[in-house]
Amino acid sequence: IRNGNLVAARAEGNAAGQNANQIRCYNCRGFGHYARNCTARPRRRDAAYLYTQLLIAQKEEAGI
């Protein structure tokens, strides 16, 4: 089994189980391409997102 996708997926380390030849993008979580080939636009990080991340970080520091 020297399929190019299978070898690339093994090297990338994100394929498992029955669908070993299905590579998955870490950017959009889509199948069949890598993040560097992804055409999806990056998610916007607006004020609400950053505020939520700030609260999460503060709770982790406080030990909650």
UniProtKB/TrEMBL annotation:
Residue ranges constituting the CCHC-type domain according to the UniProt record:
24-38
- UniProt KW Zinc keyword: yes
Judging by the UniProt lineage, the source's domain of life is Eukaryota
An example of a GO molecular function for this protein is:
nucleic acid binding
Recite the UniProt keywords alphabetically.
Metal-binding, Zinc, Zinc-finger
Q: Which InterPro entries match?
A: Znf_CCHC (IPR001878), Znf_CCHC_sf (IPR036875)
Q: What is this protein called?
A: Retrovirus-related Pol polyprotein from transposon TNT 1-94
- What is this organism's lineage? Eukaryota, Viridiplantae, Streptophyta, Embryophyta, Tracheophyta
